[in-house]
């Protein structure tokens, strides 16, 4: 069984539902058996688990590892940047197997004031586009932004009254029947601007979560920049009135975001104090759109990550001014380096012309910061997970092998392309040979493209014939044998059969 590859922005839930349609599996239990080999899997839209089964079913595409599925086909990126790094990593791990609700707990979805969407929704304009582009419909993840019932692209969204948790083990596909459910949707301008920002969040690549200290520092700085803070003191009333005038009290009240606004633990106060727990994406977005409306989500992450752990001030230090002071020149270099690294990663950034120069300058003038910052930006799979990601390596090896194979077609090699010859062309050939049992794609490639002795002999023979013809030389069996290095002993019966069928020899 294979799974239809997910469309861009399609939820995993939806791909599974489409598989059911493709294979004509009417019974939900049968679909669960086929996909997960487990009938207890709960059909989850936002943060699904058992993704390792999906990775395996998509193995042949060579495009979907666990991280890709999690970041491109679930709502994970809405939550990940706001929880500490260790939780982000644990959540990804749990999503690969059985989660038992742990993922929702870790990411704070369960305890949050912001509740997940529970009913199906769709955007008819998106659906028309889907049909034109892909010839079929699918559930798009940006239709399921919690508390934001609007399509970020088309200002409209139809909410159905079908609860997906009433179909716990069933994956329902999107089809044209939904078109008839034209209930009125209450679209609000605020929802749209927040939904657009949320979809920017969804587009962020997999990256390490900022620390609570970094968020603390960021919020303190933007409060200061907006004149809502002096020294350590944040004027919470002023912040609240700015947020209310940007979004309107009624809107915030409807979202439950003004509950206990006079309490000391009111979220809008806490977010400007030392962070001790996570805030929801919606709370973050609301403050961003009020205090730093011109910054994109990417800009904001760049700003937050700018506080490398070493330079983040303690709460005991009184104000931002106490942070290690740096020159404007240095700040400019840092900023350029950060942008480059966030876009390309440390390694690639260093290999670019401007990147190399920036790196050299910072290394000379600001080494501690540079090393701390780079360390933090390393991709989780490179650093924290010291174990080899065999699936990733497997894919890379097959790519290398395909390249070698194509090259050998353009420039035929003298030797037989045996499995060991192919492996010898790879970097780390010894470890590959030893670990073949962990590399199913590499194994498959070798099984399929290794040259048999007969294939090798025939390749050499046809090469000889072509060359002789080009030189208008008469082809004699003895000259062929000699030049190709064949003998009566070495020639295989199959090669012999084909040679005998060539009448001119
Ligand atoms: Zn739409």
From TrEMBL:
Residues 194-297, 304-446 form the Transposon Tn7 transposition protein TnsD C-terminal domain. InterPro entries: TniQ (IPR009492), TnsD_C (IPR032750). It holds the Pfam family TniQ. Residues 4-157 form the TniQ domain. This is Transposase.
């Amino acid at each position: 069984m294979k799974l239809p590859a997910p469309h861009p922005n399609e939820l995993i839930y939806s791909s599974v539902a489409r598989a059911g349609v493709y294979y004509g599996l009417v019974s939900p239990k049968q679909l669960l058996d086929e996909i997960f080999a487990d009938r207890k899997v709960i059909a989850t839209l936002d943060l699904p688990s058992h993704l390792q089964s999906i990775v395996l079913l998509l193995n042949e595409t060579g495009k979907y590892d666990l991280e890709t599925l999690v970041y491109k086909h679930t709502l994970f990126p809405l939550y990940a940047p706001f929880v500490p790094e260790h939780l982000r990593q644990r959540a990804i791990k749990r999503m690969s197997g059985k989660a038992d609700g742990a993922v929702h707990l870790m990411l704070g979805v369960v305890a949050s004031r912001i509740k997940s969407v529970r009913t199906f929704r769709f955007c008819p304009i998106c659906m028309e586009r889907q049909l034109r582009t892909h010839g079929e419909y699918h559930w798009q993840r940006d239709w399921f932004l919690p508390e934001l019932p609007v399509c970020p692209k088309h200002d409209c969204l139809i909410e159905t009254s079908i609860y997906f948790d009433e179909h716990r083990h069933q994956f329902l596909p999107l089809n044209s029947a939904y078109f008839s459910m034209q209930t009125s949707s209450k679209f609000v301008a605020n929802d749209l601007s927040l939904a657009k920002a949320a979809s920017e969040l969804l587009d962020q690549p997999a990256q390490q979560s900022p620390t609570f200290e970094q968020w603390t520092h960021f919020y303190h700085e933007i409060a200061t920049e907006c004149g809502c803070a002096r020294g350590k003191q944040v004027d919470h009333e002023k912040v609240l009135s700015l947020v209310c005038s940007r979004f309107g009290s009624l809107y915030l009240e409807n979202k439950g975001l003004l509950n206990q606004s006079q309490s000391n633990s009111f979220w809008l106060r806490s977010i400007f104090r030392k962070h001790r727990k996570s805030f929801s994406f919606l709370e973050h977005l609301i403050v961003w759109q009020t205090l730093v409306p011109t910054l994109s989500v990417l800009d904001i992450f760049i700003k937050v990550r700018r506080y490398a752990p070493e330079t983040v001030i303690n709460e005991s230090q009184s104000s931002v001014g106490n942070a290690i002071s740096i020159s404007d020149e240095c700040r400019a270099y840092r900023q350029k380096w950060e942008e480059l690294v966030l876009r390309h990663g440390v390694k690639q950034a260093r290999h670019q012309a401007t990147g190399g120069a920036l790196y050299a300058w910072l290394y000379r003038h600001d080494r501690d910061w540079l090393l701390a910052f780079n360390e933090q930006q390393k991709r989780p799979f490179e650093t924290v997970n010291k174990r080899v990601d065999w699936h990733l390596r497997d894919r890379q090896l097959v790519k290398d092998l395909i390249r070698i194979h194509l090259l050998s077609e353009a420039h035929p090699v003298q030797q037989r392309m045996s499995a060991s010859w192919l492996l010898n062309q790879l970097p780390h050939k010894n470890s590959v040979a030893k670990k073949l049992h962990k590399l199913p794609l590499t194994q498959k490639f070798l099984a399929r493209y290794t040259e048999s002795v007969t294939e090798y002999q025939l390749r050499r023979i046809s090469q000889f014939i072509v060359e002789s013809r080009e030189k208008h030389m008469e082809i004699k069996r003895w000259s062929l044998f000699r030049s190709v290095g064949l003998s009566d002993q070495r020639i295989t019966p199959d090669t012999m059969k084909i040679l005998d069928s060539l009448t001119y020899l």
